[in-house]
Write a structure and sequence with these properties.
The protein has 2 domains: about 1-215 and about 385-400, Glycogen Phosphorylase B (Rossmann fold), CATH 3.40.50.2000; about 230-385, Glycogen Phosphorylase B (Rossmann fold). The strands form 2 sheets. The protein has a 7-stranded parallel β-sheet, with helices on both faces. Strands 10-11-9-8-12-13 form a 6-stranded mixed β-sheet, sandwiched between helices. It is built from 16 helices and 13 strands. Helices cover about 45% and strands about 15% of the residues. The two termini are about 20 Å apart. Strand 2, helix 2 and strand 3 (about 50-55) form a beta-alpha-beta unit. With about 400 residues, the protein is α/β, with parallel strands linked by helices.
Length: about 400
């Protein structure tokens, strides 16, 4: 079966799909991932086919949230998705940011499934994950707010407001976001979530077809070897801590690095920094570029990060204490989960981050042994899960039942 995965977003949005794609390929399927150009090597290094999507999501998301930048990015993305509809595929898989994939699949005449990295479906257990405010509205309010995010174009999950233009571009009849949501629910459209049920238990009020499978671990780049400078630094003294801000790092590298340097010196800690710069800052501080977190994190005393879905998962598997520094979107939600699991102290919202607060949180995470004990116990259980298996099984069943190229009735 020819499987096309739409990986809209930044590195953390694409990497888990490479892990899922490898497993699907090993099961005998042909896998292509559509992603933005900066993440092409993530896909090709995994041995998967790559389809380029135009636009730069980092420019739209980190350019001080410019409306004009986001509009330009949306238009570019629509162009790419419209071109994608002309490709040959038997099945489309896409996540939250790839919501226009519903329309692409309809235009192609093929089935689709959700492969979400965030739990956006309505539940009373927590407020909408992609909202600006994470305060609970009560069970009824949480469910209602999440449903409105699907049904109201201006509030839709990330790019749902593109629906009208997207359908017109693809030559499809008009369909409101509310009608699309109702169709999605009435057909029990399948959605698999690439997160451990130990980190996020499946809400009891979710409908059938919404499953939490376990993480989809991305493979390391082919032929990757650690930089000798980093390897030597890790073994030249006490285990350092990690501080990184994900895709945000490159936007104000010097400012963020200075903040972290002050924090680590205040706490008296060695550190590996992923804050946008590279090279030795001092004998006890090393700034690095891209390094596979699954290799790096287990060697550290603690990891401070922005709590993107993928980094959160790899940190959990590493079995080390965390310090949550969420910035936006789903990051506050994952930060709250790390705190609830007892593997991280209280989160520090990025806008409130200071050297003193970061130093205090890292010191707490390292000196209180309960954080490491809980992290190690959770790691053992999460590492034993096979999150890709349910998705592979569903794709295999679809192929066996309907065959490639034929849409299920």
């Amino acid at each position: 079966m020819r499987v096309l995965i739409i990986g809209v977003g930044t590195r953390g949005d694409v990497a888990p799909y490479t892990g899922l794609g490898v497993r699907l390929r090993e099961a005998g399927h042909e896998v292509t991932i559509a992603a933005h150009q900066p993440y092409a090597e993530l896909v090709t290094d995994a041995g998967l086919e790559y389809f380029p999507l135009p636009g730069d999501p980092l420019h739209a998301l980190t350019g001080r949230f410019s409306i004009s930048a986001f509009k330009e990015y949306s238009e570019q993305l629509m162009d790419g998705l419209a071109e994608l509809a002309g490709q040959e595929a038997d099945l489309l898989l896409f996540g939250v940011a790839g919501a226009p994939g519903h329309h692409v699949a309809e235009a192609m005449g093929v089935p689709s499934m959700g492969v979400h990295l965030q739990p956006i479906d309505p539940t009373g257990d927590f407020p909408p994950v992609m909202s600006l405010f994470q305060r609970s509205l009560g069970r009824w309010g949480n469910r209602r707010a999440a449903r409105l995010a699907f049904e109201v174009p201006a509030a839709g999950p990330l790019l749902a407001g593109m629906s009208t233009k997207m359908r017109a571009r693809l030559g499809l009849p008009p369909m409101t976001p509310r009608a699309l949501y109702r169709h999605r629910e009435s057909t029990r459209w399948p959605v698999f979530h690439g997160v451990s049920p130990l980190v996020l238990p499946r809400p009891a009020d979710w409908r059938p077809g919404l499953e939490i499978t376990g993480y989809w671990w991305p493979p390391r780049p082919r032929g990757w070897q650690p930089d000798p400078v980093l390897r030597d630094f890790l073994t030249s003294g006490p285990a350092p801590v990690f501080v990184g801000f994900g895709s945000l790092a490159g936007t104000r590298a010097e400012q963020y690095t200075e903040l972290v340097v002050h924090a680590l010196r205040r706490a008296g800690l060695r550190g590996v920094l992923q804050t946008g710069l590279q090279g030795h800052i001092s004998d006890d501080l090393l700034a690095v570029g891209d390094v596979p977190h699954d290799w790096l994190f287990p060697q550290l005393a603690a990891v401070a990060h922005a709590c993107g879905a993928g980094t959160t998962g790899i940190g959990v598997r590493a079995g080390v204490p965390a310090v949550a520094v969420p910035v936006m979107n789903d990051q506050p939600f994952w930060a709250s989960r790390l705190t609830a699991l007892g593997v991280a102290p209280t989160a520090i919202p990025f806008r409130r981050l200071t050297p003193a607060r970061l130093a205090a949180a890292l010191t707490t995470a390292i000196t209180d042994p309960t954080y490491r004990q809980r992290a190690q116990a959770l790691s053992v259980r999460v590492s034993a899960e096979d999150g890709a298996a349910p998705v592979v099984e569903a794709v295999n069943q679809l192929q066996a039942t309907h065959g490639p190229g034929r849409r299920p009735g």
